[in-house]
Each structure stands twice: as structure tokens, then as C-alpha cells.
């Protein structure tokens, strides 16, 4: 994979399961720029990419197959602004390479002693800045030691979306349990933004029903509370984990009107869409930041299909996931399930138009008449306020 191969016209269409390489990275960059996030870009077809393609097709009135045919690709190019290069040279700034960089211990109480939950390496910081895996950045920059780059050095990077893009006002958020996604809808029910997400499990589920945004904090402290975490013994002590991208709640905490639940970032963007949370809605840090800057106090949040099965005991394999230790990343399936659960069509067959999914809601919702959110300041490095909301990752 080279910058030239990614920037060349996509020649292998339709793109579908099993695809990997320059064409796939090109499609993922286009999706990111079109505000239908594929999550962390890795140059491989996966569940998050398929869901993003499917919902873009639904919104644009294209046959919703979940695969990228020529019509979908051409629409993506237009929505992404028709950039001449999807991998481009970028001169690093002093802020891009600035630390501090801190090793994050696995023990939650040792994490509480840190000055920040900072990036551990410069490679990790650059990976998040350009929404791509370290492996993709290394392939685009062969021979470059990403941990050693300096301000002024030029890297070849994905041309990710403009963080200032705002195609409309968010009237309602919709969280789908079956689809593992968050949709930001306008007042007509049209999808503005699509984000892959990690939600709760049957033993520690996400809430179900209609709620609202109560507060937005950027770079929040995380109040670790074993009593509200199903996978942690209640007699363990509380702790306050300092802000930073490697906190369990990442760069953003969006407080919801249901106690102990929120929408937040993550320290493990590669797990989004493939892991489970302790009931909250996890997004990549870059998607969480993008969304948080477009929310208002009182924005409705609808959880649908998040409590479909019986509540069961947590398996031992995920113990302490919500306690702040690095979560175990489940094996990524070689052929992820189709967005609607149907088997993939045989090779060479025509795309099959699935029935509309039951969790697609297009009911117009009037936007809340409330002032824009002002991010709350993080507390000082002393004792937390008694009124600080619980933060459940």
C-alpha cells in the first residue's frame, strides 16, 4: 500500500467482504470525510465499514446492499468533496508531536496516581489524529520511525474529514443495539452522522428508552465506582482517574438523563464495534469529540434494541474490562455478519436489497430549544466534587 496506489482511481468494484488494500483504504477515507465513520481505518473490509456503507446508501436513496458499487463510489466522491488526494503530504506541527507520553499501568489504582491519562507513544497520538491504525501509517511511510518524528517533518497521511464540517443541526441521537451504531438525525429524521459504537452486553446492558443530553465534558475525570460496575466486586475502593485519551472514558463524557450512563470516547479505538461496554455508548475519541461539539443540552437520545436478551452473569474473560484495565480485544471475524444478519450473497451474484431494518427510525423530531453546550472544566487534581456524576464506561 502506497500513497500513489491509494490515490489511484478505485479499479476493483464492487468492493465487498474479503477486500483489503489501497481500494479499501480509499473507501474508508471517503466514508470518514462523508461523515459516515468507518471507525479506525485499517484498509480492510469489516463490519464497521459495511454498516457505514449501508446507512449512507439508505440516506442517499441508493439500493442498500452494504457493498460499494460504482454508483455508491461516485456518490461517496461527491459527498467527500472530490479531493484530488485521499492520502496527502502533511508537515507535522509542534502540537502534533508534543507530549507528555506516559506508560499506563494496568492497575486502576496506579492509574489514579498518574498526572494524566496521556498517550503512551507518539505513534498512538498520530494514529488517533489521522483515524488510522499504526500499521496503515507505517505502510504509507516506509522506513519512518513514527515515535521519533519531529515538527516540520512531512508524513503521508489519510486526508480525514474537516472537524468543522456541520451539514445540519442535530435534533436527536439514535443508538441501535442490533446495529452497534449511533446516528445523529436532523429534524426531518435524516441521518447527518453515522458512528460505529460499542454498547453494553446482556449481563451489563445499555439502557432502553428515551432520554436526553444533560451535560457535555471534554477531557473529563473518570470516577471509578465498583458499586455500579457489574464486573467488579462492590467492596473495591473508588478512584478518580485523571483526564486523557487513555482514560476508560477517553476524551469526552456526555452525561445522559438516565443515571450512570453516558456517551464517551475510548482508549482502545480498534475495539469499537467489536467489543462490549459496561452499558455506556463508546465511540472512538475522534468521533466522540466531533459529536460532542454538535450537541445541545436537552438533545433527545433514543436507545432502541439494547435489551433484547436475558441478563446473564458476566463471563470471566471480560472481568475488569470496565474497571479500567485494557479490555481484551475479541477476535475480529474473518467474515463479519451482514448489517441485517443475512448471509453474504454468493460471489458474482447481483446485490440483494434487504428489507428495511426494524430499528431504522425516520420519525421527525423537533430540536430542543436550548443553548449550546459549554464543556465543563475538569476538576483540579485534588478531591472530586461530591456532585460529580458517576462515569460508567
The average pLDDT value, as a whole number, equals 79
- Number of helical segments with 4 or more residues: 9
Strand content: 5-15%
CATH class of the largest domain: Mainly Beta
Distance between the termini: 36 Å
Q: How many domain modules?
A: 3
Features:
about 400 residues; Muramoyl-pentapeptide Carboxypeptidase, domain 1; L,D-transpeptidase catalytic domain-like; two-stranded antiparallel sheet; about 20% helix; globular; disordered C terminus
Would you mind describing this structure in some detail?
There is one protein chain. This protein is of the alpha+beta class and 393 residues long. It folds into three domains: 3-79, PGBD-like superfamily/PGBD (Muramoyl-pentapeptide Carboxypeptidase, domain 1), CATH 1.10.101.10; 87-158, no CATH class; 172-323, L,D-transpeptidase catalytic domain-like (Beta Barrel), CATH 2.40.440.10. It is built from nine helices and twelve strands. The chain has helices spanning 3-7, 22-33, 47-60, 70-79, 94-97, 108-111, 122-129, 134-140, 285-292, and strands at 87-91, 154-158, 172-176, 181-185, 191-196, 209-218, 222-224, 239-241, 252-256, 262-264, 281-282, 300-304. It has an eight-stranded mixed β-sheet, sandwiched between helices. A two-stranded antiparallel sheet has the order 1-2. Strands 7-8 form a two-stranded antiparallel sheet. Strand 9 and strand 10 (262-264) form a beta hairpin. Helix 2 crosses helix 4. The radius of gyration is 20 Å and the shape is globular. The two termini are 36 Å apart. Mean pLDDT is 79; it is low at 309-391.
Amino acid at each position: 500500500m502506497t500513497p500513489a496506489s491509494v490515490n489511484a482511481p478505485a479499479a476493483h468494484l464492487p468492493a465487498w467482504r474479503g477486500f483489503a488494500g489501497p481500494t479499501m483504504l480509499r473507501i474508508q477515507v471517503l466514508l470518514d470525510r462523508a461523515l459516515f465513520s468507518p471507525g479506525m481505518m485499517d484498509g480492510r473490509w469489516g463490519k464497521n465499514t459495511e454498516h457505514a456503507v449501508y446507512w449512507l446508501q439508505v440516506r442517499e436513496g441508493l439500493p442498500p446492499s452494504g457493498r460499494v458499487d460504482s454508483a455508491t463510489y461516485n456518490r461517496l466522491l461527491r459527498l467527500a468533496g472530490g479531493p484530488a488526494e485521499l492520502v496527502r503530504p502533511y508537515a507535522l506541527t509542534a502540537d502534533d508531536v508534543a507530549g507528555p507520553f506516559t506508560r499506563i499501568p494496568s492497575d486502576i489504582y496506579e492509574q489514579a496516581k498518574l498526572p494524566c491519562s496521556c498517550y503512551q507513544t507518539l505513534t498512538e497520538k498520530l494514529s488517533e489524529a489521522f483515524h488510522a491504525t499504526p500499521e496503515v501509517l507505517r505502510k504509507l511511510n516506509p522506513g519512518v520511525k513514527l515515535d521519533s518524528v519531529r515538527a516540520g517533518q512531512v508524513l503521508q497521511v489519510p486526508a480525514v474529514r474537516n472537524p468543522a464540517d456541520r451539514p445540519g443541526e442535530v435534533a436527536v441521537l439514535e443508538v441501535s443495539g442490533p446495529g452497534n451504531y449511533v446516528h445523529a438525525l436532523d429534524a426531518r429524521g435524516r441521518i447527518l452522522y453515522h458512528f460505529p459504537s460499542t454498547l453494553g452486553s446482556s449481563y451489563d446492558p445499555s439502557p432502553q428508552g428515551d432520554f436526553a443530553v444533560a451535560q457535555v465534558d471534554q477531557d473529563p475525570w473518570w470516577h471509578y465506582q465498583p458499586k455500579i460496575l457489574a464486573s467488579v466486586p462492590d467492596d473495591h475502593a473508588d478512584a478518580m482517574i485523571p483526564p486523557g485519551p487513555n482514560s476508560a472514558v477517553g476524551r469526552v463524557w456526555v452525561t445522559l438523563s438516565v443515571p450512570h450512563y453516558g456517551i464517551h470516547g475510548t482508549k482502545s479505538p480498534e475495539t469499537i464495534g467489536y467489543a462490549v461496554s459496561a452499558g455506556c455508548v463508546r465511540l472512538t475519541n475522534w468521533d466522540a469529540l466531533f459529536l460532542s461539539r454538535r450537541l445541545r443540552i436537552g438533545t433527545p437520545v433514543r436507545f432502541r434494541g439494547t435489551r433484547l436478551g436475558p441478563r446473564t452473569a458476566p463471563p470471566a474473560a471480560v472481568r475488569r474490562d470496565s474497571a479500567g484495565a485494557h479490555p481484551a480485544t475479541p477476535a475480529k471475524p474473518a467474515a463479519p455478519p451482514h448489517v441485517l444478519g443475512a448471509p453474504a450473497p454468493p460471489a458474482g451474484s447481483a446485490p440483494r436489497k434487504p428489507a428495511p431494518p426494524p430499528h431504522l427510525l425516520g420519525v421527525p423530531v423537533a430540536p430542543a430549544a436550548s443553548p449550546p453546550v459549554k464543556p465543563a472544566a475538569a476538576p483540579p487534581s485534588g478531591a472530586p466534587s461530591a456532585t460529580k456524576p458517576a462515569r460508567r464506561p
